[in-house]
Amino acid sequence: MKIVLAEKVSPATLAVFQQEAGWNIVTPDQIKNGLAAELADADALVVRSAVQVDAALLESAPKLRVIGRAGVGVDNIDAPAATHKGIVVMNTPGANAVAVAELTLGLMITMARSIPRANATMHAGVWDKKSLQGQELRGKTFGIVGLGRIGLEVAKRARAFGMELIGYDPFVAPVIARENGVTLVSIDDIFNSSDYISLHVGLTPQTEGLINAHSIAIMKKGVRIVNCARGELIVDEALVEALKSGQVAGAALDVFTKEPLKESPYHALDNVILSPHIAGSTDEAQEAIGIQLAQQVRDYLKLGVVQNAVNVPSLSREEYVEVAPYVDLAERLGAFLSHATPGNLENIQIAYSGRLAQGKTDLIRNAILAGVLSDSENVNHINAASIAAERGIRVQEDKKEFVSGGAGSVVKLTLHSADGDATASATVLHGNSPRLLSYDGIDIEAPLTGTLLSIRNQDVPGVIGRIGTILGEQKVNVANFALGRNVRSQRVPQGQALAVVQIDLPAAAKAQSVLEALRKVEAIVSVRLVELQKAQG
């Protein structure tokens, strides 16, 4: 085996490969004639963020089987080109979870004890003990938003401080939360009850602007907020005003909407702790990332075990051509139904009918799971099943080779929670057009592409016109408007209807303002915004 390390790695990372007898390990200082020439007979390529692995470079690597990226992002790797050549692309999500968790707790302690001000006054020669009386974390209610790897690591450490832990994450089974000492609650309960709130979710239409004027208004006065996740989770103007008024006693921010942070109103506030996106930047985390990647690459080359891949597994050309449209459909269907259950997700049921049921469906199943779980953390078609298992979510598959109606193959997805279910079915028309066929037992045909509004409303006159008027006032163009009435559904109360509206949301428009305007309509029971991005395949 020949392993090319295109960028510098730690000695411990290098040692993982050097322990394998007969393996040829090429380090950056040994690359004399260019990377392309070195890859001519290489089995594996390891990079960090500097080397661009594009289609042209891959043409120089006819034997390459795996590309390993030491980190989470793979923007510097042409994953579709790698997939086309049958090359697995791996990354290392979660390796820095402990580092982020430790900084989160460190920031909480720092706020509780006013450590920056204590340090500053002492360096200024001022002994100001009286004004520095702080608070203990013990006994405080700690709201954790997002219970993925990092959120659970935070919970483990917060328990040691004697805090009362509550959490919000619709993609974690209650048993997983209980095992980690976390009581699952609604997001409003997080805001209402918490003395400290920490954010550990990805950026999605549902989480963007999660901390805003409305959510801050229902928080306990004197709450403290930590954000080591994504800057866009917070509406900065709303947090600044709350920090000035005292509604929020303090905030600790490691991430920002625009980085590096310049000319920010946060700079003038002494109850804000700012750090330059360093949560995952520890010696140990960077070492762990390198070692984890080396082990993943080694295990794939020796055993064929695929871990943390970001592209689809290899298929024959014939198999891939047939299944690819349904892989795309499956991820879109999962993303559409994500967040639709009234409680925490416990069970996922997938039913295949028609020709699709006769072939391999593992890839389609994983695409559905990736869509359902896409809001929670770094999930892809390869690791989706294992992440669902980690979160205590059961997955059941059923196959029926015959299908009624005009669709050749249909995928039906049902999400179960203790408080209720959500279900939808879909198919591919004309070979490349993903279409919704039903939603919660109501027949409704709509495109599963672009930006969608999923609306449940009272089946009364005037609702359609009101929706159109509001979208027009918001400068939002309607691309498709699909309606369904409750004829026989047991999932939707009698007298209610469904609408799925495909819209062109201008870049300047704020999704939150569109949703707020629609929710003010008395006849509208609920509304969700779903953005269906291009599938990962």
UniProtKB/TrEMBL annotation:
GO terms for molecular function: NAD binding; phosphoglycerate dehydrogenase activity. Pathway: Amino-acid biosynthesis; L-serine biosynthesis; L-serine from 3-phospho-D-glycerate: step 1/3. Residues 452-532 form the ACT domain. Its EC number is 1.1.1.95. PROSITE patterns: ACT, D_2_HYDROXYACID_DH_3. It catalyses: (R)-2-hydroxyglutarate + NAD(+) = 2-oxoglutarate + NADH + H(+); (2R)-3-phosphoglycerate + NAD(+) = 3-phosphooxypyruvate + NADH + H(+). GO terms for biological process: L-serine biosynthetic process. Catalyzes the reversible oxidation of 3-phospho-D-glycerate to 3-phosphonooxypyruvate, the first step of the phosphorylated L-serine biosynthesis pathway. Also catalyzes the reversible oxidation of 2-hydroxyglutarate to 2-oxoglutarate. Belongs to the D-isomer specific 2-hydroxyacid dehydrogenase family. This is D-3-phosphoglycerate dehydrogenase. It comes from Terriglobus saanensis (strain ATCC BAA-1853 / DSM 23119 / SP1PR4). The lineage of its organism: Bacteria, Pseudomonadati, Acidobacteriota, Terriglobia, Terriglobales.
